[in-house]
């Protein structure tokens, strides 16, 4: 019997034996072909056998499992003023329902001022256009104020070009701060908060706002003065917001030459919870944290102490993960199976602590991204990064991580879903298909290999990653009971997958994503079933049209590609309720 391998959970040898017996009995008796003669038979070629347990889900996730993040740097580089763009709101709405976390490295340098936006509170721009640029922003704000409901704008091309130039210059300042770990304060005015909330509300996103945890009293206790002012302003506006405090508290010693230990951090969260309860509108608002960085030694010790000393006050436990740093120089770095597997190791560490102290708490992966410090041009903004992103979603779901927050939806740089021209990058299209097709119920996948030489082993398993969920109930193209399988093929060769067991002889809808253009894996454009994906206009998505595979047909995954496959009319028990 050939060796088995499984993704992401183990199946039984009895299951495999039954499948093999069924396939062999329906195939022509195997005979070794003569040298240089006939084409290899079915049993001689590599084949992956795939089945899914449709009786019950192994995990049930949040409906907002795939969610988004915006970094406070958009205040400094000026992009916050353009969140009213019809195109940006349309793109964000395509990924709803979701959370929108406003947080990042500069969370702990945010200072709230209950003022209208003044030019002196903005980041600097090139002198030759600064005055006209600021006047354009003010005129745009006045026009938006006259609108009722969602406040949307179409910005002139010249205005956007000037903003891109300003952001390019400011990005160098922001990057220098991040690399040196010396940060300047970021002023959030009342109008800036209005613009942020308008964006989230119009796009159907629930805003989670990160408060500055480094605003400290002489005794190192948290100074809540600025936070209370922000809470009162937001409550007066009736803004439906959830809250968190700080970002990567394990890094405070490096970032601000001061430290906050686990017991102090737990006290700060308890104080914030009390503060929320004192503001009537937010008395039942959710609180998330502690948002530790990558779970290495110091971060793990901080999380353990936080949970031990009253961290159960949070509604979900949050942490962050980044795969790679700026030393990455080639596409292959995004496709290393060892790199892809690091997330599983980190999740295991975090879950162990949470389950020890508060097993009822959900765990969220916040601030996840393919690369650190804004990403790398022509790498983290290309199709190749999509393997890391979809792998993150698949592994997180299999482990029961309730929400994954992608850093970042939009900003200047190369680590985002939407670029500075408001065009969707490959990771956006992966996210859109995920939202469109994948529901929160995770199913167990059984995978095995059938081939004569060489035997299937770790290489096939590691480079062909397969996950299964119930199809999203929000997708009315499919009835309840449908199953969605998504596959990452990192092999440089085509892989054939035979649906077996409960999936056998079912009609399949294929959504195959491949890079579009001569750049190959470094392309920033994507094709779906051979057709390039582009926005029709600022408010219209392209049709996500599947290719129908007849019942019983083998799935052929092209080299280095991503595929979503909906098994129709399967009436899976786990997906009916």
From TrEMBL:
Pfam families: Glyco_hydro_79n. Signal peptide: none annotated. GO terms for molecular function: hydrolase activity, acting on glycosyl bonds. Belongs to the glycosyl hydrolase 79 family. The gene is hpse2. GO terms for biological process: extracellular matrix organization. InterPro entries: GH (IPR017853), Glyco_hydro_79 (IPR005199). This is Inactive heparanase-2 isoform X1. It comes from Danio rerio. One of its GO terms (cellular component) is membrane.
